[in-house]
Amino acid sequence: MGISTDRIDGLQWVLSVKWIGIWASTAVLIAGIVSSPVGGLEREMQLVLAVFGFTLILWLTESVPYTVSSTAAIVLLYALDLVDTFGEAAGGFASELVFFLFLLLLLGGAISKVGLAEIAAGRMLSTRSTPRSTVKSLGAHLMALSLLMPSAVARAVTFIPIVNEMTDAYGLDRDGPFRNASFLVLGHVNPIGSMMLMTGGGMAIITSQLINDSVRTVTWVEWAIYMIPPMVLLFWASTLATLVLYPIDGERTVDSEDLSDGMAAAITEDREPLTRNQTVVGLVMLGAVVAWIIGSFIGVPTIVPAVAAVAVLALPGVAVVDRELVADVSWGILFLIGAMFSILEVMEETGTLELVVDSLITLIPFDAMSTLFVVGTLLGLAVFIRVWFSTASAAIVVTLPIIMEFGAVLGVNQVYLALSVLIVVGSTTFFPFNTTSVLLSFDKGPLELREVFGFGAVMMLLGAVTVVLSWHLYWPLVV
């Protein structure tokens, strides 16, 4: 007797990744609650680890939306008496980082909403270059645009149709090396630009605030001095790596007559003037950048220019920031950050984080290692954790506090260590789901899974080289 189709579908449904995440997370939570403390853990320590394991599995498998799993974590901290009040359980949401990232997401959304990103992209590309020089031009324009447009995803969305248009204009195969290299730049290399500035994207924002909270204050200008040269080096090394992997025609040219009317108008002198909203958003963003620079010298918190910029764009008569834009914010990431901070606070208060770090130090012979091997081991751990997350920002939230705790115990320079973790996590993408821009380029472009994985390994190695050069040659020169 055969098995019915309904039963097969039902079995596949129960065994899907999301349902496995539900069963596994529930099992971890129940085991932590009903079993006696093990391995020298106190009761509170085991409970908070159970909550962390429960939540982490849900985050990794995305069995339920981040907002739901994060809220469940907060409720569990309170329900299991790990904190005295619900306000303490939700204390992580009071972090400046949550509100700062929220404001920057609104500003990034405003830039995309009024079409500034598309205009900037269209005006940057040239129609009289070769396919090989166009890939370099694409990299240069993505890096330049990252200074004004924080979201790597928005930049990728903007340039994908332009790359397709240029492929057709050159008369190239859509499965050929030009488009492959271009989509690797859009997916893998593009996010590197967001790390140049403290306010450049979620990864940089989270890292800078964690440094400010646990080590020392790093100003907007100081961050730029620390990170722009290494990120420019990594960005261009990665871009040139695509040209090595995919030999591209350096002779063929294209004329604007080969392009569609819309594309030709966008990248030639036949341009329409900026609209009122585009002008306003551009001036507001320029003002915010100037305020961040000046504020670095006079002690103005970085969140102040951000809230002022959003307030201006939300004024009646402007209304670029409206209910629709607020609703489109990535609330799941904000909830994840708030919940992770809440869990970390309880882990610190109960001594759980210190015990975990001490236990791992006992197991791993850090004392017998040189500083180079200690840092390499910690960064390897960061990469391992990062592979399981669907966004680098989420991986940074979970990974960086733990790695920095190791650094504090082992006497490693925590600022260097935090920046190194950011670089290796931000440059490592083995699977399409690891980074949204890679997932987008994988879905819209000609890349295969082996190409995504292979170039992810190349970028991880380039990121490691960048860390070594920065740690030993450049960062010691930064005062």
Automatic annotation (TrEMBL):
Membrane topology value: Multi-pass membrane protein
Transmembrane segments: 20-40, 47-78, 98-121, 142-163, 183-211, 223-248, 280-313, 325-344, 364-385, 392-410, 416-440, 452-474
Primary location recorded for the protein, binned into one broad class: membrane
GO cellular component: plasma membrane
Pfam families tied to this protein: Na_sulph_symp (PF00939)
Any GO MF annotation of the entry: organic anion transmembrane transporter activity
Superkingdom as given in the UniProt entry: Archaea
GO BP, sorted A to Z: carboxylic acid transmembrane transport
InterPro entries recorded: SLC13A/DASS
Keywords: Membrane, Transmembrane, Transmembrane helix
Subcellular compartments: Membrane
PANTHER family: SOLUTE CARRIER FAMILY 13 MEMBER, SOLUTE CARRIER FAMILY 13 MEMBER 2
Protein name listed in UniProt: Anion transporter
